[in-house]
Amino acid sequence: DVSDDVRRTAVLALGFVLYSEPEQTPRIVSLLSESYNPHVRYGAALAVGISCAGTGLSEAISLLEPLTSDVVDFVRQGALIAMAMVMVQTNEASDARVGTFRRQLEKIILDKHEDTMSKMGAILASGILDAGGRNVTIRLHSKTKHDKVTAVVGLAVFSQFWYWYPLIYFVSLSFSPTAFIGLNYDLKVPKFEFLSHAKPSLFEYPKPTSVPTTTSAVKLPTAVLSTSAKAKARAKKEAEQKANAEKPTGAESSAAANTGKGKSSSEKDGEAMQVDSPPEKKSEPEPSFEILTNPARVVPAQEKFIKFLEDSRYVPVKLAPSGFVLLRDLCPNEPEVLSLTDAPTSTSSPAGGSTAAAGQQSSSAMAVDDEPQPPQPFEYSS
What is the pTM of this model? Predict the structure, then answer.
């Protein structure tokens, strides 16, 4: 088409057509990402971001990397946003390029000479990377491969922020929580353990950023007074005179020197004998599995490693690696231990009893009805 807007939107729409087969998208739009038209390159970047969102696909990251340093500012903006959509819930242990991308975002955001379009894209990309406290991902279809219409509409409207910036907030409709929450017959969360048969570092939270605290102290030349220089010279001369006066004869000095040498050598040997070499710290090998406790964070890439323990009290009714999972209790006569409780806390307590009530309440209790009471009826007069 002759219109740049039409071409950009048409290429971007390929992401919605191909999101059920994200592996095919980088191959299909690879030539479009090298187009001479910057609008086509922008659409290709967002098409890859929409189609491969939350997958951490290596081919998608390789295609988007050159676009993050494009010569056109809005192409860089789209590439940064698309890269963040692909890398959601992917840490540096899974792909080393995630750490490089995070440092690139930090550099763009802090650079005062960076253009506004790229800086806005970096800020949005940083927010998408850490969305929901890093506990959500972008999913356009359910586990049963059905379309999630709300998520698709959210991303479709979000992609139109080109014309109106407030449409950015629609991206939140495409976020889906990534957690395993086991429920018993009473829809409560019991204490339940299961196995993640993968290294913990592959799916752990990214390390928090640390602000550098080192400051380079500039040493200024110290002022030397003329009186202090004369005083130092006088003290040095007096010390030399005192040393010459107390100097022993040649034989005594040689004997004393030999004794001192022998003593110093023996002392050095003794000191050398007493010094112990510091023990070498051996890094412990990382375990190949991890025990998770209900409820737990389970990212999509981790679902295939989830295993349920054979000797566990609770067994899933249907083998589901994430989401809300109903559990069957194999020991119904034994008392249950809940991980979360929804018991409301009383807002009014007698004097002196608030401390005891707070002590009795479990630290893991989740107060869902802890809100203030409405005010008493009153009459208003102007």
Answer: 0.70
